[in-house]
Specification:
The chain is α+β, with helices and mostly antiparallel strands and 220 residues long. It has five helices and seven strands, in the order βββαααββαβαβ. The N and C termini lie far apart (40 Å).
Length: 220
C-alpha cells in the first residue's frame, strides 16, 4: 500500500521521510476513549478547513489563522493529556515494573542505528515518551515511515509483555500522539520534557534515578 505524508485513525498524523518526532503512547485504559474522540473531532474539523482553504486562490490570512488555531489547540490538548497520564499513578498494568521496563527499553533501542537515531525515551507507569529521528531509508533502500515503525514497536512489545503477565488482548491504546520536530530548539525541549517527566510526575527527584529513562548520555 502506498504511504502518504498524512494518515488518520481517530487523530490526524503526519509523516515524512527523514523526520524527527516526539511520540507519546499509553496503555489502553490510561485515558478514557471519549477524551480522544472529543479532541479528534476538533482537530479533524480544523484540518478539513485547512485543506479547503489551501485549494482556494485567495484567503491566505484566514488560512494562516486556522493553521495557528490548529497548532494551539493540538498543543493545549497534548499538555492536558500528559497531565492526565501523570496523575494516574496506579495503573492495572505497571509499565515501570523492572521486567516490563527491560522489554520496553530493548524494544525502543532495537532499531537504533538501522532505522532510527534515538535521542531520548522514558517509560512511565502507564505511558511512554520517545524522541527520535527516522532515517529516510533502510539498509535495503526502502523508504521508512513512522506509521510502520509504531505498528511494529507496539505489536512486538505488546506480545512480549502479555506473555510475561500471562494475559491476552490489546495492551496499547491504538492512537499515539506524534509531533514533528521543527528545529534544534524544539528537539532540545522535547528531550528535556521526556527526561524530566518522572520528576514532573513526582516519582523521583532526578531524572537519572528513574530506571526507564534513557537520554543518550546520562550527563544531558
Amino acid at each position: 500500500m502506498e504511504k502518504k505524508e498524512s494518515y488518520r485513525h481517530t487523530l490526524p498524523h503526519f509523516q515524512k521521510q527523514g523526520q524527527a518526532y516526539f511520540v507519546t503512547w499509553n496503555l489502553q485504559d490510561a485515558i478514557p476513549p471519549k477524551v480522544f474522540y472529543k479532541f479528534a473531532r476538533k482537530l479533524n474539523l480544523l484540518k478539513a478547513q485547512i485543506n479547503t482553504m489551501e485549494q482556494l486562490p485567495s484567503g491566505f490570512q484566514e488560512l494562516e489563522r486556522i493553521k495557528r488555531e490548529f497548532v494551539l489547540h493540538r498543543k493545549k490538548y497534548i499538555q492536558a493529556y500528559a497531565d492526565m497520564l501523570d496523575n494516574r499513578k496506579s495503573p492495572a498494568i505497571n509499565l515501570s515494573d523492572p521486567e516490563i521496563i527491560e522489554i520496553l527499553v530493548s524494544t525502543l533501542q532495537f532499531w537504533h542505528g538501522r532505522k532510527i537515531h534515538n535521542f531520548a525515551f522514558t517509560v512511565m507507569p502507564n505511558h511512554v515518551h520517545w524522541v527520535f529521528e527516522m532515517y529516510p531509508r533502510n539498509q535495503d533502500g526502502n523508504p521508512l515511515y513512522l506509521q510502520d515503525l509504531m505498528q511494529s514497536v507496539k505489536r512486538f512489545s505488546s506480545n512480549r509483555i502479555n506473555k510475561v503477565l500471562g494475559r491476552t488482548g490489546p495492551l496499547w491504546q491504538k492512537e499515539s500522539f506524534d509531533t514533528t520536530i521543527r528545529n534544534d530548539r524544539h528537539l532540545q525541549c522535547a528531550i528535556r520534557y521526556t527526561l524530566n517527566n518522572p520528576v514532573k510526575a513526582g516519582l523521583v527527584g532526578n531524572w537519572t534515578d528513574w530506571p526507564g529513562t534513557w537520554g543518550g548520555c546520562r550527563g544531558f
